[in-house]
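Consider the following input, taken from an annotated entry for Transpeptidase family protein (Salibacter halophilus).
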Amino acid sequence: MSKPKKHSKMMRVYLLYFLLGVFAFAIVFKTVQIMYVQGDQWREKAENLTVKYRTIDAVRGNIYDYNSRLLATSVPIYEVRFDPNADALSDELFNSKVDSLARSLSNLFRDKTPFQYKRELVNARNQGERFHLIKRNVKYNDLKAMREFPLFRRGRYKGGFIYVQQNKRQKPFRLLAARTIGYDREGLESVGLEGAYHDVLHGNSGKRLMKKIAGGVWMPVNDENEIEPEDGADLYSTIDVNIQDVAEYALMKQLKKHEADHGCVVLMEVNTGEIRAIANLQKGSDNQYYESYNFAVGSSTEPGSTIKLASYMAAMEDGFIDLDHKIETGNGKHLFYDTPMYDSKEGGYGEISVKRAFAVSSNIAIAKIINKYYKSNPQGFVDRLKDFRLDEPTGIEIAGEGVPYIKDADDETWSGITLPWMSHGYELQLTPLQILTFYNAVANDGKMMKPSFAHSIQKHGKIVKDFEPVVLKDQIASEGTIKRAQQMLEEVVLDGTATNLRGADYRIAGKTGTAQIAREKFGYDDVSYQASFCGYFPADKPKYSCIVVVNAPSKNVYYGNLVAGPIFKEIADKVYSTSIDIHDELQPLQVAERPKIPVSKNGDVDKLKSVFDRVDVKYHLDNDKAEWVFTQTENDSVNIHERKVTPNLVPNVRGMAAQDAVYLLENMGLHVEVTGRGVVKQQSLRAGTRIQKGKKIKLELT
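Applying the prediction step yields:
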């Protein structure tokens, strides 16, 4: 009996092992199946059921101009969705309201018929959707209206109404200063003030618990944020929209006139370095002009004759020349190592002074001066330019500033003609803003200011930070050199290459520039020109400095005074006429002493004589038979003159008291209507016209 019993036990053990093996195999099989066969399906499902905290962007701060006008702001827009399967939405409630909801949506958006909206909503409910998209980019006023729609007015949990706020950046002035305002978009390089002050404007993001549903859409779990976002601060820029508008219009007009490739303008306040206007325009493929690149900040080019100011100042600072120093320029052509240099005047200028050479922009004059005094020590000239800080960027806050290039004497490309060509603007490179910064220092008696675009940071109306002016260099040259430089710049406009900018109300100081540039980047094989004018105004008390650069004018007019100068003048005229602080304070008018005799009204002669007799005022009556009179008050008496009244003609009642005027006019058959108080200032019927009985006459008193 023991043997079968033992066999039975073993069979049960084997069976148990077999079952365990089958179970283990099943587990392994299912694991492999889930991992490799059904893996994508389960991973997608897990992904769709993800619940986590998502970032909520804060409302970005605004950017304002110098006078608190809005340049950039974040406008809230909404994405509206519908949960047609919300727990509180019974079939009876949904079916009774879906028609009116569809009709309301159709009336609001005008993009679908009520039938189409109803079919969409019913299908969403039948398919079990919980986050059905109704509309993107919904404005606040439309959202407010939707809150009152059938079903939606019941809210999220009872009516399935869901909306998600987003913020869209807008520029109220559209393209005005658009490149300077810039943008800060994810995945793109930050540009302008938006990029430079991202941390200030961005604020602090919040957190909200959301779940991912089918289709990869994130749906809020509830209406409350775990961490509320903190809005960004506001940036008040130095830009003045009014001046900016003038600058862009003046630049656009000249670019179109000369069919130029591109151009830029910068206007800077002398004492502070604050930029009041900066415009950059380039011709597009459609021959229209757009602000596509910040040439003023980022484009380093050979400046041409505007650099002559620095060259003359270098020679003056080293004591080599003065304003009355004479230079022989010859017949307008001079060879430097067999390379010819030309002056613009046919036949040349002959022997002229330094001051005159600068005024007429003689290339040969400055080239001979620099070559003569620095030929044995060319690095001395380079070092002087560096003393003026022309080899360093200005360090402005917005990105993309071009790097200045001043060649050293030990550079492998240095040659015998480098000095004379550098002296009048070649073989070195500067941006328009860097040139303006140098000229602004001359206008500011030698103190070089850092250009700035930000005036202050404010939050909820309170100042968080004021940006103080930054001095780049206290004195770029001696006082004597600065004074002589200022005289030369004034002479250019008074009797030089820019006499077309001379005006009667205020003086301008500046320098024209014309440079040849390679046209290959504009699609040409030959060379083109860069016309410029850089200066400041008013010359006697500089308030603003300005540079204008126009590239590749194509109508055979390329000199700085004719292409860039008019832009400068138009901007300067506008700024001068609208800037109160530029003008001298008005002195009080010297008012003559008023006569001691009181001024009388016109009217009935007997009443006037009675009053004059009572207050003991002397008077002279030119016609004793006069009935209606007007008076003329002198220092010690009153002259009384007859005012003729012709029957059937409207009399002149200006200056009369209302009582006398009404009496006279109504006795002549007119209906009188009076407004105001005092004496008659205006009458609606012209004196001398024929009277029509019963016609209305209006008297305005003052």
